[in-house]
Every structure is written in structure tokens, then in C-alpha cells.
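In this supplementary section we document a worked example of the pipeline. Step one takes a protein sequence of length 296 as its only input; no multiple sequence alignment statistics are reported here. Step two produces a three-dimensional model, which step three serialises into C-alpha cells for compact storage. The input and output of this example are shown verbatim.
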Amino acid sequence: MILLISNGAPNPHETTVNSFFMPNFALQLLFEIIGLGSASGLVHKDNSLFIISDNSSFLYEYKIQEKELSRIKLFENGQENIPKKDKFDFESIALKGNKLHLLGSGSTSKREKRIIYNLDSKKTEEKELSKLYKNLKETTSIADDELNIEGALFCNENWHLFQRGNGANSKNGIFKTKSLETENQIEFIKVPLPKIKHVETSFTDAILVDDKIYFLATAEDTTSTYDDGEILGSLIGRMNSQTFEIEFTQKISDNHKFEGLSLYNKTETEIQFLICEDNDSDLLETNIYKLSIPLQ
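The serialised model returned by step three reads:
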């Protein structure tokens, strides 16, 4: 089912940054997964989708051909639909080598964990991010409750952590660091993003494809990294991985809060992504969409 197709220019009053707009795209509902809710990130590898949920302490694997969902225990006492004040808030999942890295958002002290899952050995390793996140906040003078890491990728020998600037001070940007564990110089690149209506969009995920960074951003009518607000729409964009100059953005929905992004397929003329939606509810159902855009 095609949900949305666009071949026209967006409203020029909806953006305040210099970015180019794609001429067309297609958004299609591809998988409906029962048993998983509030999806916040995904990685497509071979026949599997590895999915995280910001309400859960499990990593989920969905086998595409078999249409089977399994849970991978990350902690001794795994839970689904953890109360908001207690949840680990895993918002980022990145594949580096044969390991998946799951990162908490950092928006509360309980959300400062990293879990490493080895795809070969099936073993997990837990790391604390509290020291790193403290350094990130000090680097940019971000208040404790405004750090909100929503995407992570490894590029050019650096980790890139995508700060969702939906707090009161609205600092959208990218942290660069050589390591997530040892002390290193931290650089913060502020990235202004287009507005949808009166709200600046803010990062919800990002991935590296060849030498380009593709990202998702959502406009949510709130100034809190903790409380949800009205969803005004989501967009996809691309930026140069060296200069971080935005090469295009395209609004893809008026009412979806798209949070997870992964490469699905790429040809000479088109690139296809899988994206997931955070429904901000306790409902254990997740929709996975295919987003197709032309390559330019």
C-alpha cells in the first residue's frame, strides 16, 4: 500500500535553512509486526531487522522471510513497556563491524547506558555512558535534561552522535568523538533544520551510505525532551559527511513520528530505506515502512 507520493515543491514558508528539495518520493507500509511497540531504531542486515524500542529492555530480531519476531535479552530481568521514569530509552542503534551498539538518549540519568551485541557470539556487553554524556553537556553547555541523543554512526574514524534539539534551547547538532569510552576531544557541529509550521524539526536518526549521511527529523510541538507533544510531521534529508552541509530535505509525512532509518536497497537511480515509527503508546504493534527516493 502506497501511503504518500509527492512530486511537487513544498511550501517555501516551511523552511528557514538553505536546502534543496527532492522532486518525488514514495512511502509504503511494508511490514506490520505484532509484539513490539514504540520502535525507535532499526538495522537491516541480511534477512533480519534488528529493532529497538524506547520502552523496552529487549533487542528484537524480525526475520523477514519467516515473518518471525524474537526477543534478545539485554538485561537479566527483561521488560517491555517500562514506565517512562524508569526506562533506558534506547533511541540509537548502529552497526560497526559485527557488533550492534545500542545507546540510551541521555535525557535522564537512567538513560546513559550502551549495550553492545555481538552478532556472531550472540553475547551482550554493558557500558556506562554517564561520563561521556557529562562531557557532551559540558562541551555545548546543554542542560542535564536537554541532552537527547537520537542517532549514532561511525564515520571517518569518529563516532557521530546526533543531538535532537527539541528542548527549550533547541540545539540540533552532531557530536564527534574518537571513542565512546576513553576521554577524547569532542566537537559539536550545530545543524539548523527546516521548520514544519512553527516548529523546527529535530534529528530522530541518521545513517551513513557511502560518503553521505541520510537523516530523519521530526517536528514535535514540545520544548521537553521528556514529555511528548503534537506531531507536526517528519522529513528525510541528506548531508555531506565531511562538511555537514545539507544537500536536500523532503517532508515525508504530516503526522508520523519516524524515528528509525536503515538502508534497504540501492541502485544507480534509486535508494530505498526502511523506517519505523514511534507511536508513543503501550500498544505492542509496529509498522515498518519502505521509503524510496531518486538518487541525484
